[in-house]
Structure formats: structure tokens, C-alpha cells
Amino acid sequence: MLLTLPYSVELAAQALQQNVSQPQSMNNTAPREVTYCVDPDWAPYEAIRNNNHVGISADYIQTISELSGLTFKLVPTQSWEQSLAYVQQGTCQVISMLNVSDFRKQFLDFSAPYFEAPNILVARSGTPILQGYAGIGHRTVGVVKGYRQVEYISRHYPELRLKLVQTESEGLAELARGDIDVMVGSLLSVNTHINNQKIDNVSIVGYAEPFDSLAFGVNKSSRDIIPILNTAIATIPENRKVDIYKQWNNVQVRYERDYFKLVVTTCFVLLAIVCLVWRNRTVSQFKRLTKQKNDEIESLQTTLLDRNRTLEFLSAHDTLTGLYNRNHMIQKAEEEISRFHRFHTTASLIVVEIEVKRDCRGELSEFDRENILKQVASQCLATVREVDIVSRFTGEQFIILCPQTALDAGRVLADRLVECIDQDVLNNNTKMQVSAGLAELKESENFTDWLERTTKALYHSKRLGIAKVSVAD
């Protein structure tokens, strides 16, 4: 028998007594459109069906839209990984339902949580109850790629053997076939998939920490909508939350068929062929051992591939801001110079530097400095074009490589960028200043020469004053 696990859904903010039919009580301004992405295959929490958003998050978004006056526009995606990539790139401003993690904090800010639910461990029937991840032992664990559980297990239980799957539905199918031993999933969605796929040979064997505390993830460039979302979340009536939960809680108690008579008959048949079983026992054991070793090798290869990808990402990106690092920028600049020599396509280089004024040094803490650098990085990504390459070149120095960009167009981009940083990030801070230098690539010039000319223009901007852009000779 597959049993449901009890749990409670509690929000951090206490619901106020307010009628949902009054949508403009909290926001008297004109409606603002917010683009958002969802996990397309995580029913009943959320899913995309015929390009329509359905599920628990869809009902909460509708309620929050009525309470806040925000208008939400769905950006359809094909997978959870694509949704995360879209919100990181700014293709959508908000991702509707996800947990907070250290990696996601690099490019997202989070609202207050509005839905909580347990994660569970599912295994084939006959598996004993498991005391969380610590009780899994040498079993192979299936986890959906991109879910927070992958980051959590890798950090706190690195000895576990993980196998990443694309969706919970795919993971349950592999569990039923015996390709994995344990599947980690969300209670409501796992039961939905088990019922839809009519899987009879699996059962829930334990809880998986931590439980989901689901909130909106907001691209840092749109962080101003978080107070609006938090206010709306705090004012959702309790009866509305209960109605949404009842509507989508389709967890059922399922009973297995009684195969007792069939088992008894089979035992009598097996008595007749016991000699043949004994003869083939050694061969079967050898095959099982071979399959187990092959599975271990495959798991190790998967783990190695994932770690290589992680190392590749870290080798090309700055750990604080998430921008490209110095080495990657030099590589891209050399490629652009090579393209310039072959096809005579122009290119421009912008150097932006944030610095504390001399008379204010020592007044800015390391935390404030790092926070400002992160904001500058986000502002650069939000201001430049998709073809431009942004890197943190040194401590407070950022370089923007603008392929196929003439000097005039580069000057427009540099002026806009410096103005945005000065007004939106530094807020005309009297302790700090931003300056920029700009240079167009010349014939027979290598990257070092190009960067030197641009840096000289930057120093000239510093001498001119705050928020100035100078063009190299």
C-alpha cells in the first residue's frame, strides 16, 4: 500500500482578513506587466499545458495579481533548466516557484515563501524505511537536474551516488525499471506521476530534507517588485490558501493487488525446476555483479562530467559577480582582434572603474564594497547588448568588449552605462565615483596596446571628474 505523508502548509506572513475581489486595494498605480517562467513539468505544483500555466503556482499568481495590480505574462519554456537560464539572462523577470540556494542567490533575489511542502524518498516495494539521506547508503539516488536537492546533497552528503534525470516523471520510470534505487521528489508531484503512470511497484520510504519553502525568484534587475509581491503574499486570505490546496491535492491511497494464490502456485512450479535454478545461480550472480559494476562506472562518469562542467564554468567566471573573468576576456579579445585582421570589422573596448575617493578611503566596509560590485555587474548586464562581452577584469575594474561596434556607437553605450551606474547603483554617492575610457581597435594593434590606450582614456576621465567618459586617441 502506498501511503500519503502528512504535512502542513504554513506561510511566513500571517494572512490578513481582506476580500480577494478588491484587486486594487494595495496598488493604486497603473498595472505593471511582469514576465515569468515556470517549471513546465512539475504538476500539480506547476506545469505548462497547451502553452497555458496551470497548477498551484498559477492559482497563487492569479490571486497575487488581483491583490497587487501586477499583470503576469508567461514566457513558455521546454524544461526547468531553460527556465533557470531565462530568468538568469533576464528573458523573464520572475520564476514563480523555487527554493533559495547559494548558487541562485548569485543572480536572483527572493520574495517571502508562499507555499511549503515536504520532499520524500521513493523506492521499489520492499525497501525498508530510510532515515533521510543518511540512511540511503550505497544505493543510487535519482534527482532532477537543476533542483536545489542536487546542490544540497553535493554539499552535505558527497558520498552518495547521484544520477541526474530531466524530470520527476522520468526518474520514477527509471526507478520502476530498476535503473536507480531511490528517487527524491516532491510529495504532491510524485503521487501525481505515480497515479498517471500507473506505477505499482514503488512506495514512499522516508522524508528528504530540507522541505520545500517555495517563493518567487526575481532577477536582480527587477528587484523593485519584491516588496509588492511580499505585501500581496502577506494579505492572501487563509481560506484562499486552503481552497488552492484542496483543488490540487489529488494524493490518493492505492492498494496493491493480492498475489498470494499466484505466489503459492509459482512456488510449486519452482520446486520442479530447483535443480536448474541451482545450476544457473553462479551465472546469474556473475551477471548481477557485472551490471552493478557497470552502473557504478556510469555513475562515476556522470559525476565526473558534472564536475568538469562546474570547473569549466568556474575557470571562466568571476566568483563574486558571476561575470566573465580576466582570462576569458583576454581570450575573447584576441578572437575579436583576429576577426578584425581577417574581415576588417571594427570593434570597441570600454573600461569602467568604480573607486572610493581618496578622502573617503577606509569608510567603506568590505561587505558594502562587494555589494556595490555586484550591483555594478548587474547594471552592466542590463545595459549592454547581447553581443557585448562583460568581465570583471580587476578588483574594481570592468571591461566591456563590443564586437562590430564603431567608436560613435561605443561612446553612446559607454555614456549610457556610466550614467546608469552613477544614478542607479552609486545614487550620486559622494564617497565613490565611476569613470570610463573608450578605444576603437586599430590596425596592427594587439590586445595589450588596445587595453593600454583605453586605460589612458580612463585615467583622463578620472582627472575630469565624476561620471566622465573619455575616448582614446
Automatic annotation (TrEMBL):
Pfam families referenced in this protein's UniProt entry, alphabetically: GGDEF, SBP_bac_3
Residue ranges crossing the lipid bilayer per the database entry: 259-278
Protein name: diguanylate cyclase
InterPro entries: Diguanylate_Cyclase (IPR050469), GGDEF_dom (IPR000160), Nucleotide_cyclase (IPR029787), Rev_trsase/Diguanyl_cyclase (IPR043128), Solute-binding_3/MltF_N (IPR001638)
Catalytic class of the enzyme: transferase
EC number(s) on file: 2.7.7.65
NCBIfam families: GGDEF
The GGDEF domain, residue ranges: 345-473
Catalytic activity: 2 GTP = 3',3'-c-di-GMP + 2 diphosphate
Signal sequence residues: none
Source organism of the structure: Alteromonas stellipolaris
SUPFAM superfamilies documented for this protein: Nucleotide cyclase (SSF55073), Periplasmic binding protein-like II (SSF53850)
Record has Transmembrane helix as a keyword: yes
Transmembrane recorded as keyword: yes
Keywords carried by this UniProt record: Membrane, Transmembrane, Transmembrane helix
